[in-house]
Amino acid sequence: MSWVTRDAPRADELSSCIQCGLCLPSCPTFRLTGLETASPRGRLTAMSAVAAGRPVDSRFEEIMGACLQCRACEVVCPSFVPFGRAMEGARAEIAAQTSGVDRRLRRLVTARLLRSRMAVRLGTLAASIAQSSRLDRLAPGRIRGTVAGLRSLKGRPRSIVGRTRAAQGEKRGVAALLAGCVMDAWFGDVHTATVELLAAAGWEVVSPRGQTCCGALAAHDGWADDTRKMASVNMEAFRGMDLVVVNSAGCGAHMKEYDHWVDGGEELATRVADANEVVAEAIADGRLPRLSADGDRVAVQDPCHLRHVQRITDQPRAVLAAAGLTVVEIDPDGRCCGAAGIYSLLEPDMSRRLGSSKAEQVQATGALLVASANPGCEMQLRTYLSELGHTARVAHPVELYWEALQRAEGRAAVR
Amino acid sequence: MQPSPELELELRHRLGDEQVASDPLDLYVFGKDAGLVRGEPGLVVFPRNTDEVATIMRLAGRHGVPVVPRGSGTGLAGGAVTTGPHVLLVTTRMNRIGLVDVENRCVWVQPGVINLDLSIHTTPFGLHYAPDPSSQSVCTIGGNVANNSGGPHCLAEGTTVNHVLAMEIVTPDGDILQVGGPAPDPIGLDVRGLMVGSEGTLGIVTDVLVNLLPNPPASRTILLAFSEVEHAAATVSGIIANGLIPAALEMMDQPMTIAVERFANAGFPTEAAAVLIAEVTGHPSAVDAEAELVRRLGASHRATLIRVASDEAERKRIWLGRKSAFGAIAQMNPDYYLHDTVVPRTRLVEAIEQTYAISERHGIPMLNVFHAGDGNLHPLMSFDASIPGVMERVDAAGKDLIEACVAIGGSLSGEHGIGMEKRDYMHLVFDEMDLDAQARIREAFDPGRRLNPGKIVPQGSRCFDFGRPPPVGAWV
Ligand SMILES: Cc1cc2nc3c(=O)[nH]c(=O)nc-3n(C[C@H](O)[C@H](O)[C@H](O)COP(=O)(O)OP(=O)(O)OC[C@H]3O[C@@H](n4cnc5c(N)ncnc54)[C@H](O)[C@@H]3O)c2cc1C
Ligand code: SF4
Ligand code: SF4
């Protein structure tokens, strides 16, 4: 029955793969299973099989569903196969061609609830009550890991939407901060750090009303029309901003690729920047200080959508070094931690294997601080580190720099 | 013969459901390696150890279904592609590396171990596994053994056959044998040597004792560029004539260099007609002298650029570029065909000119990479198979190419194997008697044709062959 949507993997995307296999060893799921069907090349071949007339059946759904969309395969592909785009297309086809309660539930969560600030706030309130009454330990199997990875939540977090913060010193322009769906409700401290640092670096910071969830999770799960809607809303909300700053790697990666979904996406991409990029730049040109070393070690984890999609690795390290921390590496390949959006809920076994081995690597570094620039990775690390009984703190690089800066300023004030 | 439902059930029962795949989509996905031919297996199995391999051989034998081994599927000649609905035996789950014997510099590895993973594993001991095919980050030791694979660094060190000391094999009947031993030159018939390059037609390799080499204390990687291909070829001859055998001596022509540079950003000069990469290894004092010799020879042959890699990062980038050559050409066209021929080094320029002439005649762009040091040429044709008539031209050009190489004293396949693709050209390099001898060997091992049938020997020849690359010129 082949493809039915406009988002389907395109013939030119599929034929750009020459099946050399050079991507196989970078693929976490191939590494763990040894299966061609769990490799980038195998997944592309399966897509080609459908393009040639095979049905989108349950086996196709399984093969595509096991992909983390981590995109490690894209970095090593000498033929520049746009794997992520093709996989989003395959997911869109599956979403269009299959039905069932679980599908409807997935759409409800990724494409509807995350767009609704009210829904996220209600969920947050419930989770915070559960945390404070320790009821969270009774969470059902699948979501227990996710719940365990949460920061301790405020019942009624203060949103940054609609707030502004004036630039300090000479003004460089207006930077809009993406509030995000869960970032706004669960990671308020990261937002505070980002806003304060942007302001200190000379940006007037706003978080415009009218913005919505970036749509990454909906795109990864195949809800193409919803993705387009969210992208259009944000295109409008961020119109005219000099810079659109994103402090969640997955959201930034998706917004840098809005051109897959809406007209004008390329232009927006030129204005989107990860918070690490902006802060590292400000440090490099002296707008933010380099703090003296305090000897603490920090293990740096590269979120896949920062490293493989945005190709950003130096900046978080520069930010952490400027915070006076000694940066230690976790693994040279930057293999996925297994969080991968809602993957940890959908493919718990694979996610667990990747999460545990990442936690073991972190533990082996001996560092008591771990930096991660993506909310999903942060929660995954926290979950599996706590399983190991390792008490390392996990935080955003920009947040760690902001804390160090405040400490340094506090010391200076006392003196 | 199609695997019967009983065979599948028995395999599932003995190995577990996780170790067997039979969904039509799985069979489709496992229907190819990195070459062009497709052929869907009837069943795919993923054994985890030697006993499971033996079980598979016995059960498949009892049901009369042939078995085809497969590693990572990076073979370029269809060696791991089934010619019928056979059982495809995938070794990727047999990926254990044994204890490294540091004193004797060797280690037992299972066949599914990835070539580069082995060298990474032995780095702490200051050792490495020498054969380094460009696909080394993904191809398996089992596949390397079956194809006697080589790589840029095999010029001085030799190919796989020079680095395998012993192996355990499972015979077509499901018996487990050990061949070879720790001695480099065992007494008696060298079955081990026979197995290397046999492309999975004589037995399934289930454990390999490989030789490890000490990492060189120092190395220099030199990048040279030329405005004429002839100048590059003359430099190659000059280097060898001066008695220098660099660890690697590789060449790329301009179209190849352009494609590679786009991916690797290794600083290859894209305006040059040919780029040469030479690497010398050894004692710190010796490598500087050798690098200087290479530099002088390049200069005397009018090199337009001579650059010695300043650090390990630059060296890695150069090799990443060279090793992504095959992949990078897909930036031009969706399909490629990689030829693999060996010509006497002295006739390199002639061979290159022939490829350009053939390319022109058939209107098929060709890019060239070669292991220049030993005359192993890899002309890559780049084309779009969906355009009507193109495949015929590709075929015709390929035939011309092979005939041209054979005519100037070359031979087929330096390293990628014969598989299905070149099977029908075998008579160009072997006469009846050669082919017959090979067929007898195969028959002695596998009278029932249970292993990888339909590979290596020309269709219609009396028996079958085994496909060790002919000795002429290959990896001196
Ligand atoms: C980008 C690229 C670059 C390459 N560069 C080089 C190069 O520089 N030099 C070179 O020599 N080759 C090169 N090749 C070819 C290929 O990588 C090698 O032939 C490699 O050794 C194949 O290994 P594999 O694990 O992928 O084997 P497969 O392709 O899976 O199988 C190859 C053959 O080995 C047999 N086989 C596999 N495992 C076993 C076993 N356990 N027992 C018995 N038989 C077995 C199969 O039946 C088949 O005939 C390249 C290929 C690609 C795609
Ligand atoms: S590296 Fe690229 S071209 Fe090669 S198999 Fe993977 S996706 Fe295809
Ligand atoms: S995106 Fe990640 S999991 Fe998916 S095929 Fe690529 S490397 Fe594998």
Could you walk me through the main structural features you see in this protein, from its secondary elements to its overall organization?
- The complex is a heterodimer of chains A (415) and B (476).
- With 415 residues, chain A is an alpha/beta fold.
- Chain A has 4 domains: 11-97, Fumarate Reductase Iron-sulfur Protein, Chain B, domain 2 (Orthogonal Bundle), CATH 1.10.1060.10; 102-148, no CATH class; 164-280, Rossmann fold (3-Layer(aba) Sandwich), CATH 3.40.50; 290-414, Rossmann fold (3-Layer(aba) Sandwich).
- Helices cover 52% and strands 8% of the residues of chain A.
- Chain A is globular.
- The mean pLDDT of chain A is 90.
- In chain B, strand 17 and strand 18 (376-383) form a beta hairpin.
- The radius of gyration of chain B is 22 Å and the shape is globular.
- Chain B folds into 5 domains: 5-90, Uridine Diphospho-n-acetylenolpyruvylglucosamine Reductase, domain 2 (2-Layer Sandwich); 106-214, 2-Layer Sandwich (Uridine Diphospho-n-acetylenolpyruvylglucosamine Reductase, domain 3), CATH 3.30.465.10; 218-326, Alpha-Beta Plaits, CATH 3.30.70.3450; 332-424, Alpha-Beta Plaits (2-Layer Sandwich); 432-466, no CATH class.
- Chain B contains 16 helices and 19 strands.
- Chain B has 476 residues and is α+β, with helices and mostly antiparallel strands.
- The structure holds flavin-adenine dinucleotide (FAD) and iron/sulfur cluster (SF4) (2 copies).
- Flavin-adenine dinucleotide sits between chains B (33-34, 68-76, 79-80, 91, 111, 133-135, 139-140, 142-144, 146-147, 149-151, 199-200, 204-205, 326-327, 415-417, 452) and A (20-22).
- One iron/sulfur cluster binds at residues 17-23, 40-41, 44, 73, 77, 79, 81 of chain A.
